[in-house]
Design a protein that fits this description.
Keywords: Cell membrane, Ion transport, Membrane, Sodium, Sodium transport, Transmembrane, Transmembrane helix, Transport. The protein is mainly α and 522 residues long. It has a single domain (1-391), classed as Sodium/glucose cotransporter (Up-down Bundle). It is built from 21 helices and no strands. The chain has helices at residues 3-24, 30-35, 42-51, 61-69, 72-91, 93-101, 112-115, 118-151, 155-203, 209-214, 232-249, 251-258, 263-294, 305-313, 318-353, 362-384, 395-416, 427-447, 458-479, 485-495, 508-514. Helix 11 (232-249) packs across helix 12 (251-258), helix 12 crosses helix 15 (318-353) and helix 17 (395-416) packs antiparallel against helix 18 (427-447). The longest helix has 49 residues, at 155-203.
């Protein structure tokens, strides 16, 4: 990178910070900070939902998969997400919006203590926070790895730079700052991604174009949709995992739906995000599929291929824009995760641990949310420095195995608890399915050393915890139904259409319990 590239990068960081400062004026209470007060336009919510769904791991870990296996990187990653979000547009998005509009909560998990009980809410909250600290740590490590390729800064320096700037704008501006910066980041990535696509296609034009290039001996098997460990069973497992994860299991995605003005707008937001997931990853992946024809990766997993290609093919200025594109995805995901975690911690955990927190006024609650945001970012940055340790192995292991393997047990009680067909599944079903799913992940991947056995494939290592949780959640609900009038009333509020019949009234005690952790009157 030369002076022009650095100017582009510094200007980007400046604009992101300015957006955070401007958004500060729109944040008056915790509702504004965590759910934009329910005033976010559906199109901004949809773009934000999409942008907060992936990070620089796309340009490192998944770039390595694309370099090694080709088209399967899209078929077994982006396509399942697109399908899952499209399904969730009707099944989950409107229900998540009603959590805010009808139950008046500011955190996705606030409704769980009335839907199940406080222990269930706490179990899901604590385990989800710990998982996201590791997940976001992997994202910081990914962008720092790319930054080191272009600038030579160390991993720790890269983490401090990106994490510090993200902390500024998302802490002072809340969800509004997240969404608006994600809109700017989307525009930047649009320009950078199209530039790389055009240049890469131009480079292989003398080889007969894209279709013939994919048949090149250097790209042997790259045109196959399923390759390596990413086969049909992995696709099916990943589809189910992403169905839960991207429809609210990843709490920051739930916030985007909660932030819209109505359930119908949340549905439109989800369809927009799904459409982007179908199309935009193709633009980013095509140059990655062609990368073996253009560069030779230095790392065995090919995770540095896209960075090398960017450095060698792009002119200065445009190189800086593409590097900014790397930052945009990571900062979008990490800032949105930080906001979601702060919501869960301050709204769901602290009031249980400290009675005084239940009486916080608007100013104190907002300050607590900002302090928690900074604390989460600091912890995740500390984890990022250890992401290549023997415990985590490497970035892609954290993202695929840890997040995919643990997301199901944490998300299933939260997501399925929204739906009428699962109203009989109560606290016993929720806690048992959660605990057994987490234990299954541990035994499969570590205690029984299945990860070193060739007869246990990656898809089973990832899918079994989710399958175990799902089966137990459903079966226990049938064998030991725990539906009550209060729980049924809450489910009816979430499931009744905006223009449908009136939902069953929530009994007074349930309403009181449902707002006891919302002292600010959100």
């Amino acid at each position: 990178m030369n002076g022009l590239d650095w100017a582009v990068l510094v200007a980007y960081f400046g604009v992101m910070t300015a957006i955070g400062v401007w958004s500060h004026k729109r944040v008056d209470d915790v509702s504004d900070f965590f759910t934009a007060g329910g005033k976010m336009p559906w199109w901004l919510s949809g773009i934000s939902h999409h942008m907060s769904g992936y990070s620089a791991v796309m340009f490192t870990g998944y770039a390595g998969i694309a370099y090694t296996y080709g088209v399967t990187s899209y078929v077994t990653w982006a396509l399942p997400i697109a399908i899952g979000v499209a399904i969730g547009a009707k099944a989950f998005a409107p229900r998540l919006n009603r959590l805010r509009s009808r139950l008046h909560v500011a955190s996705p998990l606030e409704y769980l203590k009335d839907r199940y009980n406080v222990p269930t809410q706490q179990a899901l909250a604590w385990s989800g926070i710990l998982l996201k600290i590791v997940d976001v740590g992997a994202k910081w490590a990914a962008i720092a790895t790319l930054l080191s390729v272009f600038t030579g800064v160390t991993l720790t320096q890269g983490i401090l730079i990106t994490g510090g700037i993200t902390a500024v704008y998302c802490t002072i501006g809340g969800l509004w700052a997240d969404a608006l910066t994600e809109l700017g980041q989307f525009v930047i990535q649009l320009l950078a991604g199209l530039a790389m696509l055009i240049i890469a296609l131009n480079k292989i034009s003398d080889q007969g174009g894209l279709s013939k290039a994919l048949d090149s001996p250097k790209l042997d098997g790259h045109a196959n949709g399923f390759a390596g460990p990413y086969l049909t069973v992995f696709f099916i497992a990943y589809l189910f995992i992403k169905l839960f994860e991207y429809n609210g299991g990843m709490w920051n995605q739930a916030q985007r739906y909660m932030a819209t003005g109505s359930a119908k707008q949340a549905t439109r937001s989800a369809f927009l995000s799904a459409g982007l997931w179908f199309v935009w990853p193709l633009v980013l992946f095509i140059p990655m599929w062609l990368s073996p024809l253009l560069v030779t990766a230095k790392k065995p997993d090919g995770s540095d291929a896209y960075g090398l290609m960017t450095e060698q093919l792009l002119p200065h200025g445009l190189l800086g824009l593409v590097v900014v594109g790397f930052f945009s995805h990571t900062m979008a995901m990490c800032s949105s995760d930080a906001n979601a975690i702060a919501a869960v911690f301050t709204r769901d955990i602290v009031p249980v641990l400290n009675k005084a927190a239940r009486a916080w006024d608007t100013r104190t609650g907002l300050m607590a949310g900002r302090v928690t945001t900074v604390a989460f970012l600091g912890l995740s940055m500390a984890v990022a420095t250890q992401v290549n340790s023997p415990t985590f192995k490497d970035i892609i292991t954290v993202v695929i195995k840890w997040v995919a393997g643990l997301m199901g047990p944490i998300a299933i009680p939260f997501i399925l608890g929204l739906l009428r067909p699962f109203r009989k599944s109560g606290p016993t079903a929720a806690l048992t399915s959660w605990a057994c799913g987490l234990l299954a992940f541990f035994f499969i991947n570590y205690n029984l050393d299945f990860s070193q056995r060739t007869d246990v494939k990656l898809e089973y290592q990832v899918a079994l915890p989710m399958v175990i949780s799902l089966v137990l959640y459903i079966l226990i609900g049938l064998v030991k139904p725990e539906d009550t009038p209060e729980r049924d009333a809450i489910i009816e509020k979430i499931n009744t259409d905006d223009d449908g019949s009136t939902a069953a009234a929530v009994p007074a005690q349930a309403q009181t319990d449902g707002t006891s952790t919302s002292p600010t009157g959100v």
